[in-house]
Amino acid sequence: MAYRWTNDLTSTDITPKSVYLNRRQILAGTVGLGAIGLAGKAQANDLDPNTLEEITSYNNFYEFGTGKEDPARNAHQLVTSPWSITIDGLVDNPGEYALADLLDGLSIEDRIYRFRCVEAWSMVIPWNGVELADILNKAGVQSNAKYVAFETVVQPENMIGVQRRVLDFPYVEGLRLDEAMHPLTIMATGIYGEPIANQNGAPIRLVVPWKYGFKSIKSIVRITLTEDEPPTSWNKANAREYGFYSNVNPTVDHPRWSQATERRIGGGLFAPRIDTLMFNGYEDEVASLYEGQDLSVDI
Ligand code: MTE
């Protein structure tokens, strides 16, 4: 990788909560409209972080139920210590790594990213994490590896969604190797400087900010380097609606709804929808990965 991506904001730059809440009310049109001339203007798709409360109370984590409030209610049952990740497949140093050993010597960075769910809601989340490339380099990726497969823990006794078989568990995801090695791709261990909450995928989860949220698999226990494209949970559940790439793309609609706009969580009941950005706003950084691909076919 020729460059190391640096964030334009760190958590120390985050606007105090009261200020950005007020700013959001202004953008949502609930205070001071006429006076400051914002009437009728669409809300920008900017990087105002959501509150920790919002980030930890509106979730998708089907192992703990399909409702948005279910993970916050049920994920305290997830056992996150001790935790290890098995790294296998086409690597020089396969094995089961204790999480602390895997993170040892790596720098935990602040990354404030847009997070866009395929269901057309979004947040801005101030993650703390390491670049996935640093972890993969520790394991030593072999030259014939082309993809990276990920797997979430299964603790049937603690996971009501697993007991009810709402999806085919374990939840699995995958990236092409160049996507996995991209400096924007991180393994998150925290949010707002706190250990990541169970409902957000403790103790470590993937974050790929230019892809729909379901690619960002939670509570990872296995990473496998492969030559062939690995199966992914939502593609297995409904291949017509969910492809392997799942790049955020406002010009390619979901079969059942538009992807042109999104609802920013926390914006308030009357907040205008905001425009969805190509590659979720990371086009400059990642568009070159897909040169020569037809993104209306490779969904
Ligand atoms: N990972 C696992 N293991 N199980 C899941 O159900 N849901 C995905 C993704 N990762 C999911 C998962 C979906 S659909 C989204 S939008 C994001 O997690 C939600 O992340 P958040 O709850 O931290 O916002």
Which small molecules are bound?
Answer: ligand MTE
Alpha carbon gap, first and last residue = 25 Å
Characterize the overall form. globular
CATH architecture: Alpha-Beta Complex
Element string (H = helix, E = strand)? HHHHEEHEEHEHEHEEEEHEEH
Proportion of residues in helical segments: 10-25%
How does the helix and strand content classify structurally? alpha+beta
How many distinct beta strands?
A: 12
Characterize the main sheet: 7 strands, mixed
- Unreliable residue runs: 1-41
How much β-strand is present in the residues?
15-25%
- Number of contiguous helices: 10
Give a verbal description of the structure.
The chain is α+β, with helices and mostly antiparallel strands and 299 residues long. 19% of the residues lie in helices and 21% in strands. The chain has one domain (23-290): Sulfite Oxidase, Chain A, domain 2, CATH 3.90.420.10. The chain is built from ten helices and twelve strands. The longest helix has 12 residues, at 17-28. The relative contact order is 0.18. The chain binds ligand MTE. Ligand MTE is lined by residues 59-63, 117, 152, 171, 200-201, 213-214, 216-219.
